[in-house]
Design goal:
The complex is a heterodimer. By secondary structure, chain A is of the alpha/beta class. In chain A, 49% of the residues lie in helices and 15% in strands. In chain A, a hairpin with a 2-residue loop joins strand 2 and strand 3. By secondary structure, chain B is of the alpha/beta class. The chains are: A alpha/beta, B alpha/beta.
């Protein structure tokens, strides 16, 4: 699947495929014309992705082939034992979590789960968690604290589920409680924004000591479409809103809301999932090592101070 | 009084007739203005609690002459240099400050409730719909820090539509920031009461409003996470009238008490006596 702005790549790919089809079976060596086109392709791809507009970045962050939580789990973890349920109401599949091992590190992995097929998305509600999801996440974080395991969360959600049942069971309270408890949690929390960071639904598992973000992920207080329909009174002005909202990793780093950008391979995470896994693993390893053996009480105090500094006045 | 002003006042004379009555925004009943004011802007017919300014709220809750504002000068800033179709956020801040006389969507200070010292933060819906922005978050954070330092109970009166879009991600980060402030109070065993008035929604309901030791709501106040229209579009169903009201929240276990405006101060005082060492 090609995004609108990837038309030049689509054209080049078609040309390359055509030439390959024509030259296949001829037994000739590598076609210099194909090689030239492939070089051209990688140059154009790199160029396109080096100057994505915020709205184009949103398209990449929501790309249907972008790696999902289960891809990260499969790609990063030698073991993952999913733990189910919030012990009060249900097992939400919009947020899942469990014990995980990445290289030599044992940890608690929690993240939003999106699906690719209709059935998957019905089960995980397109990554829009209900209160049970946030409460399960908190239960698992408490377990991590008890067993002195670091917490790693993966953020990829359009937002917390805006349904009547979610309201009835206290969506607001569930997110608020997570923020209150994460502030004081006595174990390291590492956050990776991998796709869509959708407002309260994202920050509800996003209060970390370190916040990492893939280079084409986005993180915002409201979707560009939502913002456009309110402030521009016109949903089609989403590109303008995306621009104004400063939702890209680069902007968020400048605003000191995130700590580090994890660069995606050229052409985005979906074009090279393996390369993406390696980049995420490398970044996680660095920070997991950094937090090893740190005093947990000081850690929580520092986390509170980190967030206190966001939007501070002198 | 100058000649011009006197003249203008005279010209307005015929209109004063209208000001004898107030129309209740909820049930549309006409009520004597004097009665409406005496009743603290609560409709005597339908019990609708009209939104109050932060100053009216402070008068209502704090002993006369004891309120001292803190961090008054923290002003809305423009971290994103935001502009939409209608203009810049910076301009809009200026206009709103002039119109309301406020610097941000919350006023913080210290004062007494029937003699008990408290630290208070009161949101004002007139300032960008009471939205949570970086100035709001900072003032609440600093007020909580003051409460911590002086070991005094902290009370927030919420009145907010949620996070302020024009400050983007920085406004979203005020949710963890304010919750960090409340977490510090909790660790120090300092009481924190959340009073939810109409409306308490979005990012405010999903942060400090919902992590109080005690949750108090005004009758019929709108309280919830997502907006009614968004929910109706999501579930393709009409919602019942009482959905997301204070009464609905109490029924579902998220509010301790629903307290009419007239009884709010005395109720706070009674509760505080259980939570503050004499």
């Amino acid at each position: 699947m090609y995004l609108d702005f990837e038309k030049p790549i689509e054209d080049l790919d078609a040309k390359i495929a055509e030439l390959k089809a024509a030259s296949s079976g001829t037994g000739a060596g590598p076609d210099p014309q194909i090689e030239k086109l492939e070089q051209e392709r990688s140059r154009v791809l790199k160029d396109l992705y080096s100057k994505l507009t915020p709205w184009q970045t949103v398209q990449v962050a929501r790309h249907p082939e972008r790696p999902l939580l289960r891809d990260f789990i499969a790609g990063l973890c030698s073991e993952f034992i999913e733990l189910h349920g919030d012990r009060h109401f249900a097992d939400d599949q919009g947020i899942i979590g469990g014990f995980a091992t990445i290289e030599s590190h044992r940890l608690m992995l929690i993240g939003h789960q999106k699906g690719r097929t209709v059935e998957e998305n019905l089960r995980c509600n397109f990554g829009m968690a209900r209160p049970e999801g946030y409460r399960k996440a908190l239960r698992l974080m408490r377990l991590a604290e008890k067993f002195r395991l670091p917490v790693v969360t993966f953020i990829d959600t359009p937002g917390a589920y805006p349904g009547a049942d979610a309201e009835e069971r206290g969506q607001a309270e569930a997110i608020a409680r997570n923020l209150l408890e994460m502030a004081a949690l006595r174990t390291p929390i590492l956050v990776v924004v991998t796709g869509e960071g959708g407002s309260g639904g994202a920050v509800g598992i996003g209060m970390g000591d370190v916040i990492l973000m893939l280079s084409n992920a986005v993180y915002s207080v409201i979707s560009p479409e939502g913002c456009a329909s309110i402030l521009w009174r016109d949903g089609t002005k989403a590109p303008e809103a995306a621009n104004a909202l400063k939702i890209t990793a680069r902007s968020l780093l400048d605003l000191k809301v995130i700590d580090e950008i994890i660069p995606e391979p050229a052409g985005g995470a979906h074009r090279d999932p393996q390369g993406t896994m390696e980049a995420v693993k490398k970044a996680l390893m660095k920070h997991l090592r950094r937090f090893q053996g740190l005093s947990s009480k000081k850690l929580a105090a520092r986390r509170m101070e980190k967030f206190a500094a966001m939007g501070r006045y002198r | 009084m100058g000649w011009f002003t006197r003249k203008r006042k005279d010209a307005e004379q015929p209109e004063t007739k209208e000001e004898v009555f107030i129309q209740c925004p909820a049930c549309k009943a006409h009520i004597y203005k004097a009665e409406w004011e005496k009743n603290l802007e609560v409709c005597s017919h339908c019990n609708h609690h009209e939104r109050m300014t932060c100053w009216e709220r402070i008068d209502l809750l704090i002993d006369r002459g004891t309120f001292r504002e803190i961090n008054r000068r923290v002003t809305a800033s423009d971290p994103l240099k935001f502009a939409d179709a209608k203009g810049t956020y910076g301009e809009k801040i200026k206009e709103t400050r002039q119109k309301t006389g406020l610097n941000e969507s919350v006023v913080t200070g210290r004062g007494r409730i029937n003699g008990i010292r408290v630290v208070l933060a009161v949101m004002d819906f007139r300032f960008f719909g009471g939205s949570l922005a970086s100035g709001t978050g900072e003032k609440i954070y600093q007020a909580a820090a003051y409460a911590l330092k002086h070991r005094q109970p902290f009370i927030i009166v919420c009145a907010s539509g949620g996070a302020r879009m024009q400050e983007g991600i920085v406004s979203l980060m005020q949710m963890p920031k304010t919750c960090a402030a409340i977490a510090r109070l909790q660790q120090a065993r300092i009481p924190y009461f959340s009073i939810m008035t109409d409306p308490t929604t979005g990012g405010v309901s999903a942060s400090y409003a919902m992590v109080g030791d005690i949750h108090i709501a005004e009758p019929k106040a709108l309280i919830g996470f997502a907006g009614r229209r968004v929910i109706e579009e999501t579930i393709k169903q009409k919602l019942p009238d009482d959905f997301q009201t204070a009464e609905y929240l109490m029924e579902h276990g998220f509010v301790d008490l629903i307290v009419p405006r007239k009884e709010m101060k005395d109720t706070l005082h009674k509760l505080l006596k259980y939570c503050v060492a004499a």
